[in-house]
Amino acid sequence: MTTSEKALGDEAQDELAALDALEKEASEFNKDAEIDRILKAFRLDAYAVLNLQPGVPDSQIKIQYRKLSLLIHPDKTANPSAPNAFDRLKKAQTELMDPKQRTHLDECISDARMLLIRERKLTVDSPEVKEPNKDFIEAWRKKTVEVLVDAEARRRKQLKAQLQEEGREQRKQDEEVAERKRRREHEVKWEESREDRIGSWRDFKKGAGGVMAKGEGDGKQKKKKLKVLG
């Protein structure tokens, strides 16, 4: 191999190394960008976290989750926010695969759409509703956030009321248990002191009998001392 051929070979290797470095940098940039997007997405909207449109089939949810989870997996990036983003991604996928939670989310999104239509004095047949433009979609997304926040606030209020009621019921049960325990202890102590009470009564009866006998004797003596007048 001539010197010029060797030089060309070295240049080719350098170019390949540079391309590999660029691809790696681009890959890390994509990972960081996706992690940032997930963390900025409204966490109560699982569709937004997974970057999906409402109404997609379960198969699409699984595919999207797998693709994004592989991209931002904490073992595949040095980004310190990767674990948090990965947890949110997993939570979003779990929510969308749960029929009850997904139905609730779909209902909130539908309610947000109807509220927006009313606010803008539109109908379901309006062009911007039938074929939503960028402005309508953005407004819809913001309205969805409002509806979800309101629904979450109601859920937490109901949960708080439920916990308070359960707390009152638990206190009532605890008080009833304590009262039964107090009664049992009183009955036990009463039974344990039975012999003492009987003995005290016997002693009292004996003492009372002696006093009465002595009193009767004194009465007789006094009778003897009495003198008949007249």
In brief, what are we looking at here?
With 230 residues, the chain is mostly helical.
Characterise the protein shown here.
The chain is an all-alpha fold and 230 residues long. The protein has helices spanning 3-40, 46-50, 58-72, 82-97, 99-119, 127-130, 134-192, 194-225. The longest helix is centred in the C-terminal third of the chain and has 59 residues, at 134-192.
Task: Please describe the topology of this protein.
Elements: H1 3-40, H2 46-50, H3 58-72, H4 82-97, H5 99-119, H6 127-130, H7 134-192, H8 194-225
Helix pairs in contact: 1-4, 3-4, 5-7
Radius of gyration: 44 Å
User: Which descriptor suits the 3D outline?
Assistant: elongated
The average pLDDT is 83
Approximately what portion of the residues adopt beta-strand conformation?
under 5%
Task: Give the biggest sheet.
Answer: none
Distance between the termini: 174 Å
The ordered H/E elements are HHHHHHHH
Number of helices: 8
Structural class: mainly alpha
The low-pLDDT segments are none
The residue fraction in helices comes out at over 70%
Secondary structure: number of strands = 0
List keywords for this structure.
mainly alpha; 8 helices; 230 residues
